[in-house]
Write a structure and sequence with these properties.
The protein has 15 helices and 4 strands. The radius of gyration is 21 Å and the shape is globular. α2 crosses α9 (about 200-230), α3 (about 65-90) packs antiparallel against α4 and α8 runs antiparallel to α9 (about 200-230). Strands 1-2 form a two-stranded parallel sheet. Strands 3-4 form a two-stranded parallel ribbon. The chain is mainly alpha-helical. The longest helix is centred in the N-terminal third of the chain and has 27 residues, at about 65-90. The chain has one domain (about 5-360).
Amino acid sequence: MNFSSVTFAKNQNEEFYKVLRQRVSEYFKTNNISRYANASMVVKTIVMLGLYITPFILLLTIAENPWFIFALYVGMGVGMAGCGLSVMHDANHGTFSKNEKVNKFVGYIMFLLGGSDVNWRIQHNVLHHTYTNVTGMDEDIDPGIIMRFSPHEKRRFMHRFQHIYAWFLYGLMTFMWFLTKDYKQAIRYEKMGLTKTQNITFKRHIFTLIIAKLLYGGILIGLPILFTGLSFWVSFLGFFLMNFVSGLILAAIFQPAHVVPTSDYQIPDESGNINADWAVNQLFNTANFAPKAKLLSWYVGGLNYQVEHHLFPNICHVHYAKLSKIVKETAAEYNLPYHSYKTFAKAIAEHTKMLYRLGNYDEAPAIH
């Protein structure tokens, strides 16, 4: 179905989001603060880039012991995921700064992760945030035939084991960005007419992808060979390990937010209508986790508050903890769900449970 033909109901719970936006706006006005990043966000940006770059510098200069070398690659993977979750994510949502040029510049951090800022904004901002968990529209729940993330997709024999093998495939996320996914997405988005939403031509998009990936691979694989004498295969294995750690962390944060038993997976009817208000669909298909885990929340860029992020993607994550009380109370007033798991471990367990249900049963009804 053409994405432009899909519409959300405008006569169901429409007052909820109107009231919620008024209350959130009043919060910023009363406290005289900006919805954009603050000084702590700038510090975090420096720290996250340091977590990613410092191990690489050590790798090129003093590392000799093989175990220390691979430990540095693991550290780079942790820093790599942190840059994506805590810095790149906000920048490409336009919430890092009031200045769009600053957002665009910081958003280029995506190239340090082996990905494409253009593809990310289309997949994440345009498709995922607009059509959250809508089968056929949200690419985040469309991993191809190898996994089943939606009850509306065909269930295959191998899916009965997906709750086990999914974790290995998750680790391949950023590695596949680097190898093939970005090129496939670029072609698909051009055919869908979505490339133009990013003010870039298809030729320029492909050219940028090729150059960026050559530089990314050349620096992260080539420089260790040049400066340390590592063999190609050792350098490539370290590069793969870094990406595997990063991909696993990213998936562990994003997947428990949507592919969980409480999600209801709206699907458009033949006319393209979805029987839910846009904001209410976010509540039905999004879950928070570990709201009291401050260190985790700091590292993952507030994405343990996914409900707040999906309702207000135009607000920097440093404000989500404060906004969560407003969102939760307003949802309760309108008798709407507010899903939140007390711990990160519980969220992971529920996601694994959902993978099992989707892999072993044709229907996986929501639990609100």
